[in-house]
Amino acid sequence: MEIVDPRLVDGVPEDEVRKVMMVALWCIQEDPAMRLATSVVSRMLEGYIKIQEPPMASLQSSLSRQR
């Protein structure tokens, strides 16, 4: 919840924040083939498709290189 604007924290359910962040992580995959199609993103956010845990290896390696 630290990423949510403090003015909105009380009105935003934590599960919704988690859902949006999971989809966002899918959308920024280093390998373009791993990124989601816009139609899939929409269906995930609408709740029609279950959101799987995104691969974190590329994100973790990117962060470790920056340190």
List keywords for this structure.
67 residues, mainly alpha
Over the alpha carbons, how many angstroms does the gyration radius reach?
14 Å
Structure class? mainly alpha
In whole angstroms, the N-to-C terminal distance is 24 Å
- Helical content, roughly? 40-55%
- Multimeric state: single chain
DSSP strand count: 0
**Overall morphology:** flat
Q: What number is the mean pLDDT? A: 83
Number of domains: 1
Q: Give the low-pLDDT segments.
A: none
Total helical elements:
3
DSSP strand (E) fraction?
under 5%
Please outline the major beta sheet. none
What letter string, H or E per element, gives the SSE order? HHH
Explain how this protein is built.
There is one protein chain. This protein is mainly alpha-helical and 67 residues long. The chain has one domain (9-66). Helices cover 49% and strands 0% of the residues. It has 3 helices and no strands. It has helices spanning 14-27, 38-46, 57-66. The longest helix has 14 residues, at 14-27. The two termini are 24 Å apart.
